[in-house]
Amino acid sequence: MKRIVVASNMFPSEKHPTYGIFVHNQVELLRRNGVDVAVIANANPDKGKANLLRKYASWFMDYMKYVSANRKSISAVHAHYIFPSGVLAMLSKKIWNIPYAVTAHGGDLDQMPNKSPLIRKLTASIMKNADEFIVVGEALKDNALSLQPVPEDKLHVISMGVDTEIFKPLPAPETAGLIPSAGPAILYVGNIIRAKGLLELADAFKAVQAQTPEAALYLIGSRKDTGFTEELTQKIGELGLNNVRFIDPQPQAEINRWMNAADVLVLPSHIEGFGLVALEAMAAGLPVVGSEVGGLKFLLAEKRGVLFQKGDSEGLAAGIQSVLTDKEMHLDEEKIQEAVQEHSFSTIVAKLLRLYKGMGSSND
After folding, report:
1. pLDDT of residue 364 exceeding 60
2. CA–CA distance, 218 with 220 (Å, rounded to integer)
3. CA distances from 179 to 170, 174, 243, 244, 263 (A)
């Protein structure tokens, strides 16, 4: 196998360390397993029409220049997100016959194709021309097939995986003092955006505090959507909630400390391709309450977590309260550990290496 080029429209930088961190983690996993990986990615999360044109034009030129100069040493391209990353992979296949795999993460199947007929057509074409097509969760398979038929032998479910060297149970002294409140700690980790169901979470936390006044809610994630953050903050004030704390994005090892210190992780998303943070919490030994959408309805099924209907704040509150107070509620620890192992880095990298080997053999 020669070099793998990873193309991604999301990748972390020193300024934005959590932007596309899951792609970075997979790249490092591949490198630790002996794969020669070159990354051509966009690390700028800033929006605005002018900025979008500038950053994507620069990324496009960097990719084409690199692949043109190094095409003889490239075994395959792995694009993360169908659009726009897959456009680059498809172009380099058409020009230089370099095979490619593309990983769909959720929004590129559920939302992006609906933005315009052109994007929908490009998405279908990228999927059709891919040598291997990957979805990060079972729920995305049907979405993919309804958009563009993909041969069964080319369609794979491979999550981004969980690093069990980072996300794992910790001894109590390692989390001492992290959470100042003496009451139960409810944790959310993710971007502070409407699609994550945080308005419903505020309503649910109101109900939880009515029964457990000392409960605290910690929201860890980026607040770049300032308009929504202001709306959420206003709602928290109107509901008279206390013990709600916003925390900036944290390194993964620190997130694991929070997961070990908290009592329950909540993920009330309206849409979720897989729900990687839920898997990370499971690996850390933290119970998860999540909405029954996308990959979560598979990941948390069979008593691996507590599911509720999306948008149902009462159901969310009941789920949280059941974890905090219902001693008869038992999650299936054996099935939780099976899921963690199924999505562990060692399992994921073995699947990727098999795919790369198959693509590389046709281009060597």
Report:
1. no
2. 6
3. 15, 12, 11, 12, 11
Residue range 154-212, pLDDT digits in tens: 999 999 999 999 999 999 999 999 998 789 999 999 999 999 999 999 999 999 999 99
Kindly report the pTM of this predicted structure: 0.88
Structural domains of the chain in order of their starting residue, each with its CATH number: 3-161+344-361 (3.40.50.2000), 172-337 (3.40.50.2000)
Output the six-digit token pair for 127: 């999927």
User: What are 291's strand-pairing partners?
Assistant: 308
What are the CA-CA distances from residue 202 to residues 51, 60, 309 (Å)? Answer: 33, 41, 16
CA dihedral 170, 201, 239, 192 (to 10 degrees): 80
Residue 304 pLDDT: 96
